[in-house]
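Box S2. Input/output pair 1.
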Amino acid sequence: MPSSTFVRGDLLSVVTTNAHSVSDKDFHPGDTVRVGGKKKGGWLRVRNMRTDDLVWIRSGRHLCLASLASRPASQIDLMIRENQVENAEKLVEDTKRSLNEWKDAYYDVKTAYEMMKDAIDKRDTEISNIQSQNIEVMQQRCQLEGRLVQHLTENEHLKHALEREKQAHQEHAQMLEQELKETKDKLLAQIAELQQQRIVVSQESLGEYQEMQQADDEAMGFFDPNN
């Protein structure tokens, strides 16, 4: 009878005590127990009719209805059942060991992941710092370029102003040179005119002097009209 059909009130007979759930419960093969309750996982709360102890045991092939226990099981069946229980227990142990190995591998992977994550976070922080420094350098460079452009613009304006001032000075110098030339020409003309006037005056004065000398000579009787 399958163990899942055991219900409250059933009388069961312990076939073997090698099963893990009954090996430490002071059961003997052939003991009779009464089912008092069930819970998930195939666990049964039973009372040992021999010792009157109330314990939890796992249902399985090590239990059968007491009505079927009167039929003696062959030694081969008992050995098969015992071997099946041992294999099941070994499978449980292997599964537990494999689970522990998987847990260890999981913790190793988790530790490696956390270390890698910390390294990535650290590198991201360094990259962020480098990017911040690069941004600051670019800002300073833009400021310097702006100042340079401003200075170049001011220098260009100053250059144009100097060129305009130079041109104004050249124009003023040309104007002064022209005025000086005109003044010189006027002075030369005035000097030439004065010299001409002086020649005329000299000639007039000489004529007057000659006339006065002639008059004096005539008055003195020295004048010779033929001369």
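Box S3. Input/output pair 2.
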Amino acid sequence: MPYSLCVEFKLLADRPVSVWTAAVDAKAHQVHPPVTERSLRESFDVLSWDTEFRGVGLGRLPAILAAGVDVEPTTAPIFVSDFDKAWEYGGWPKVVMAFDGTHLERTYREVIISDTAADEINRLMVDYPTRVEDLAGERLWLTRFPKTDTRATSAYEREFARWIPGDPFVALLAVFVFVPEGDY
């Protein structure tokens, strides 16, 4: 059983993806996780520097195990970041997915209109259907978000929003379930 500092992980399932569970002091780790991202990478060979994390509630675990990600459709935007940021989401019990960042794509593309052929813009709009033109008419922001979504074109989209263009199970490396001590 892998240990990460003073947290013991137990393998709950290994198909369709490895699901590891750990009991932690929920009060002590309400804001800060009981393990560091570095210690997770050192304890779990499947994780690398390219790993991106996403935190959700336990109620999303059946969807994750069925589809490889908690959103429908599986190509919908997800928000990922480092382990500490993922820890902020999901409540208790907490589920943290670990994704191979090389299998995730940004939810947007920035295009300089004068440098890009119309057929290339049309090709990009298949995956990024919302077109937002800057005020000067020189650049386009193509995104997977609807134009009415306030996250479209935002710093939040730039930093955290991704999507899975292929098989989610190829992108999903592992799932970690954190339960409060005593509920385990």
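Caption for Box S3: The chain has a mean pLDDT of 93. Residues 132 and 141 are 5 Å apart (CA to CA).
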